[in-house]
């Protein structure tokens, strides 16, 4: 994830956090994801993806919207928004792929970047 928004990258700890409704999954499980910003003024934009490995660009599963933030799915397992108003949190759903047979042997992450 390499944003091209022209701002410099932060060097300190992240002011944001990602909260999941579950930490294990099985085929086609829906997991609620909340991206929350702990400092003011909040964030304007974000890009989130479901992945097996944060260092490899290969998305997994599906992301869908929840709540009142207008969002656009850019790729099946990528989600971004089209509203540049400041916000403190957004919520969406990650759906595990149907081909994962054993959730004990498959790790997935939700990787996000924000501005």
From TrEMBL:
Report domain Reelin positions. 1-115
Q: Name one Pfam family in it.
A: Reeler
Check the UniProt entry and state the signal peptide residues, or none. Answer: none
Q: What's the protein called, per UniProt? A: Reelin domain-containing protein
Organism, scientific name: Dreissena polymorpha (Zebra mussel)
């Amino acid at each position: 994830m390499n944003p091209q928004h022209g701002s410099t990258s932060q060097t300190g700890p992240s002011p944001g956090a990602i909260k999941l409704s579950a930490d294990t999954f099985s085929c086609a499980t829906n997991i609620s994801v909340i991206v929350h910003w702990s400092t003011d003024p909040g964030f304007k934009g974000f890009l989130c993806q479901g992945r097996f490995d944060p260092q490899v660009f290969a998305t997994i599963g599906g992301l869908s919207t929840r709540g009142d933030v207008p969002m656009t799915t850019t790729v099946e397992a990528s989600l971004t928004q089209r509203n540049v108003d400041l916000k403190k949190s957004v919520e969406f759903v990650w759906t595990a792929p149907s081909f994962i047979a054993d959730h004990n042997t498959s790790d997935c992450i939700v990787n996000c970047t924000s501005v």
